[in-house]
Amino acid sequence: MTLKYAYYPGCVAKGACKELHDSTTGIARVLGIELVELEKASCCGSGTFKETDEFLEDTVNARNIALAEELGLTMMTQCSTCQGVIGRVNDKLKYGEQSQRDHVNQYLDGHHYQGTTEVKHLLWILVQDYGLDALKQKVQKSLNGLKCGAFYGCYLLRGQTVTRYEDPYHPHSLEDVFTALGATPIEYEGRTQCCGWPLASYATNASFSMAGRHLLAAIEAGADCIVTPCPLCHLNLDSRQPEVEKVIGKKLGIPILHLPQLIGLALGLNPEQLGLSRHIVSTSSVINSVLSR
Amino acid sequence: MFEHDVLIVGGGLAGSRAAVAIAQNEPSLKVGLISKVHPIRSHSVAAQGGMAATLKNVDTEDSWLAHAFDTVKGSDYLADQNAVEVLTRSAPDVIIDLEHLGVLFSRLEDGRIAQRPFGGHSYRRTCYAADKTGHAILHELVSNLFRYGTKVYLEWYVLQLIHEEGEVKGVVAYCIETGEIEVIRAKAVLFATGGYGRVYNTTSNDFASTGDGLCLTATAGLPLQDMEFVQFHPTGLYPVGVLISEAVRGEGAYLINDQGERFMANYSDSHNKMELSPRDITSRHIVQEVRAGRGIKRGPFVHLDVRHLGREKIISRIPFAREEGMRLLGIDCIDAPLPVRPTVHYSMGGIPTTVDCEVLGVDRKPIPGFFAAGECACVSVHGANRLGSNSLLECVVFGKRAGEKIGAYVQDRPMPTLEERPYVQEAEKLIKSLLNKKGTARIHDIRTALQDAMTEHCGIYRDKQSIQQGLQEVQKLKERYEKDLNLDDRGTIFNMELMAALELRSLFTVGEMILASALQRRESRGAHYRSDYQQRDDAQFLKHSLVYLSQDKTGIETNTCAVDLSLQTVDPERFIPQERKY
Amino acid sequence: MKVSVRIRRQASRESKPDYQTYSVECSEGNTILDVLNKIQWEQDGSLAYRRNCRNAICGSCAMRVNGRAVLTCQNLVGEELEDQTELLIQPLGNLPVIKDLVVDMTKFWNNLKKVDPYVSTASRQIPEKEFLQLPEQREKLQSAANCILCGACYSECNAAAVNDDFVGPHALAKAYRVMADNRDDRTKERIEQYNQPGGVWDCTRCFNCNEVCPVGVEPLDRISQIKQTILQQEKMEDSTALRHRRTMVELVKEDGWIDESKFGLKVVTDSGRDLKGLVSLIPLGTRMVVKGKMPWPWKFKPSEGKLEIKALINAVSQHLKDQRKI
Q1: Most C CBs within 10 Å, among A86, A199, A237, A281, to test the C interface
Q2: Is the distance from CB of C5 to CB of C24 less than 8 angstroms?
Q3: Using CA atoms, how far apart are residues B558 and B562, in angstroms rounded to an integer?
């Protein structure tokens, strides 16, 4: 099968979490998914544009969506936050009044939002479009019991209210992916809650307390690693883990993987391709446990 | 022992309004407000339809006198006309005052407060906040309780009214969370304890509406007035009994029987006003339809239909009614009619007071230190039947008035002295005896039996036989309660069963008072319908009924007192009692 | 049908909690409150919980069902058991337990008081009749006015869970309701007040409040509206939070994508002026460099559409400015 998507990379996947872009494009190649990168797109605002003005968030993202519509493709996101923000705007405009769309289109110079496409996270694409059975077939290195704790990200579960892929308090698609790859899903309290990223630049105590609670809960539930579909969550859980440890007064040392990195390992891609050295908390325990089989 | 200048029992519209009035007018007074639920949870919050007042924003020919007349006629001429005058004259100012406090009334296009038609009102004078008016008002009042820092005894239950040496000196109170018992003395006690819907098995009232204030008053040997007048609201959602507001009929809903007829047209006293006939009339006709086998599919309910109003009107004017249907029955009234039947909704009777909210004793003289306002009081402004949107008005008018009167009253009154130990000991004894009950009967079973008995023997239709049977059954259930009650929870930390057992005592007392009162009124008037005395008899019964425990507390005595007819001098033509036709 | 109901019990404030399972005969159309009542009335009178109106208006009966706060008189057995095999009932989160499902809401009420939740008209000339409030002005307040102070939002608030000073979504929703009321005369003070620590910027935007509110208040959206008002003020004292929001727009206007190192320097260090901020970034910066994660400015690629994006943001900003002047 050939699946083709308009690829919205987001800011962080090209910068501080470049390993995300590398692993996404890596697994897309192996799975036979064609990605057309939206090079003219812009940052979605990560939910803050709405606080300046809702119309700003709507127009900036209507433009992003229009870029995908022009290609006649579904927009793929790889960030819970981008998914929640852009998806929400798409729902609002697609299912709203014509006058709203007209007003937005007045400011889209050279582009036109039509409401003809969907905004879909890589996770949903794999589960729904690609299919877990098909994914299973492509597994080269079964993850054999690697205990993975999912960390979903608020915007993925609760950012959209119209288009919903699963129950925000009892989701299971990440766990289903883990199982398909031969890993063992570990459920723990906090997997659907907030990592604290939105507060990280000015309310560090609160931000790192949040991250700390959830990481601790995952460790106590027996997780070997955390797997997240959001690079912003990744930043708080991985690159700030030393600060998190200080705030909660406990050592953590649990590696945080991006979803496509976990999939990539199972598909047989090597750790270098997946950028697994580009983490603050070492991922070698995960790599060893997978590769040593 | 705690002490306050003023102690208010009950934090609903009347109680909160009184507290705010005192805080505004006499800020140096030490006020305490005691409530068995957080004030914001009081049943006032559930009031939907609106509050009547002659603002003349829509019908400019309206007047306080017209409002008074509608109220008196609606009361089947039993309301005290001097009290009705106070009610309707004060109404416009009281509404404006609420609006200035920030209440979110619905508005006309030009920004003035909107007013809509309502059953029994001859002009469009009901002010509203969509269909959640009680909620809108109570939230602003409670925000102001916070603002003024009123001391609230949160989740405390009053066990006894301290009435000694001919005056009221305070209360004995029980802390629901910890089981502590305290005597609270005060220069003035205001009861604003609400109604007693839970005496019946189908009611719009919340679980807390158990008539505690009435029971406390009766137990102190004081009289209750007009207890036989129990308002059955015609449109309680079937089967739960929650209220579908009269506002729905105000917006144009139809009542339909099994044959698809708007059956209100078939009765002479509702042929004109149709669905906007007063509540007692409408409830009786629904019951008549059901008895005649014309309930929907021969069931015990009829249909309330708003489909013809259209989606937009329903969503903007009566969204809460729609939500109720969807939540409780999965029915969207935009597409299908709602099943309704009468539900106990309001208590016209209660603690007799003057127009200044002073409670009247057996001798009809005010009892020093004791006040009452709101639904628990009987001023009487509603007589034998209350018009919709007059209760929210009564609560705020008399709550404010009580606050003002009490604020002045306590200026020169010394703090009463009393010996607290005997009261505390008696209360401890009571609690202990309840906690030790080791019988076989669950509270729920006894309570349900009582509610069923009241509904069957003293419902919309009563007669001598049914009432006497009712009295016997209540007596039997009381014995069962004393001898056979069982409590699972013997602790004193937030013991819900203990609360239920205490409230059940109130239900028994109120039930008996209703029955005794209904027995002696041998006529039909307003909400009290005697199948064996179907006519109104002004010659014998244009009087208020009074009931009270006999001196030795073993029996119930009844008496009567005169109705104030002072508006007759202002407008003899209308205010002299006539046949009540609409 | 027979339903298994697992309830968290706790005899008193100091007691250790425990779980007890009941089996209840009920139907799919029953509410969770109906189930609790059945248990309390028929099986175990010692079970404690709050309830009053059973009509979704008094707010007494909020508690956690299957992992998140609901109004038990509103949610149905059938819905709750769609994906779960039993009903799990626990007290509201973020508040101390008094007994079983009854929580101490003192913090909840105190936080509400902190925002001065009453309409203030002290400085206005009080008209003889009502203040005028046009239907459109009133409509703005409808969502916030729906609030029944049930505590569901506070129970699930991720920020309140870690920060005792955060007033909470219920308080901020009420704050919006009074601030946006045309009759209230304390707008300026409220803007200052809600901008302080404990106010709007302590919200972590987790969407839980929006998700669990049983009556459509959407507290997160109300918080956004307060923030909009704050950000529109010209003379607001600078803070990291305000800088964060402004910088987001500026950088996207400039480059299309966010240059993360520019972002960190501008927001956290105030372009080098905030020494404390600068110092706080050193450990982070160092480890990012060591692990090869550092988003060096020279590695940053702006969007190919950056000119279009700049034009768009400029045009929209101007439009919004013009709108506000009206």
Answers
A1: A199
A2: yes
A3: 14
d(CA C304, CA C256): 8
Q: Which pLDDT does position C325 carry in this prediction?
A: 79
B37 contacts C118? CB cut-off 8 A: no
Kindly report, residue by residue over B393-444, the tens digit of the pLDDT.
999 999 999 999 999 999 999 999 999 999 999 999 999 999 999 999 999 9
Per the annotation, the verdict on B294 as an active-site residue is: no
Which residues lie across from A35 on neighbouring strands? A5
- Predicted pLDDT of residue A292: 79
Structure tokens at A112: 């036109």
Q: What is the ipTM of this complex?
A: 0.95
- Pick the closest to residue B51 from B10, B13, B22, B24 (CA basis): B13
Give the best residue of A51, A67, A191 to mutate against chain C (max C CB count within 10 A). Answer: A51
Asked if A75 and A169 sit in the same domain, the reply is no
User: Are B111 and C132 in contact (CB < 8 Å)?
Assistant: yes
Q: What residues of chain B lie within 8 A of the CB of C57, using their CB? A: 45-46, 132, 135, 320
| pLDDT tens-digit readout, B129-183 | 988 999 999 999 999 999 999 999 999 999 999 999 999 999 999 999 999 999 9
* Cα–Cα distance, B245 to B51 (Å, whole number): 13
pLDDT range class, residue A77, cuts 50, 70, 90: very high
Residues of C in contact with A201 (CB under 8 A): 240, 244, 267-268
Residues A21, A76: contact at Cβ < 8 Å? no
User: Rounded mean pLDDT of C201-217?
Assistant: 98
Distance from C-alpha of C21 to C-alpha of C85, rounded to nearest angstrom: 13
Token readout for B67 is 């409002």
- What is the token pair recorded at A183? 């890993």
Number of Cβ pairs closer than 8 Å across B and C? 153
Domains of chain B with bracketed CATH:
234-342 (3.90.700.10), 426-541 (1.20.58.100)
Determine what percent of chain C is predicted with pLDDT higher than 70. Answer: 100
d(CA B255, CA B261): 8
A47 CB neighbours in chain C (<8 A) are: 205
Q: Range of A47's domain?
A: 3-121
For chain C, say whether A248 makes contact (Cβ under 8 Å): no
Burial of B425 (0-12, 13-18, 19+ CB in 10 A): exposed
> Distance between CA B263 and CA B283 in Å, rounded?
12
Catalytic residue among B279, B317, B505, B530: B279
| B70 neighbors B121 (Cβ within 8 angstroms) | yes
How much of chain B exceeds pLDDT 70, in percent? 100
Euclidean distance between CA atoms A156 and A85, whole angstroms: 9
pLDDT of residue C326: 65
Burial (0-12, 13-18, 19+ Cβ within 10 Å), A218: buried
CB C207 within 8 A of CB A200: no
pLDDT band at A293 (very low <50, low <70, confident <90, very high): low
Question: Which of the four pLDDT bands, split at 50, 70 and 90, describes residue B378?
Answer: very high
| CA-atom Rg of chain C in angstroms | 24
Of C48, C162, C147, nearest to C94 by C-alpha is C162
Measured between alpha carbons, how far is B126 from C95 in angstroms, rounded to an integer? 41
What pLDDT score was predicted for residue A117? 97
State whether the Cα torsion B61-B65-B68-B73 is positive or negative.
Answer: negative
Over residues C51-66, the pLDDT tens digits come to: 999 999 999 999 999 9
Domains of chain C, first to last: 2-103 (3.10.20.30), 106-232 (1.10.1060.10), 240-325 (no CATH)
Q: Are residues A34 and A149 in the same domain?
A: no
Q: Into how many domains does chain A fold? A: 2
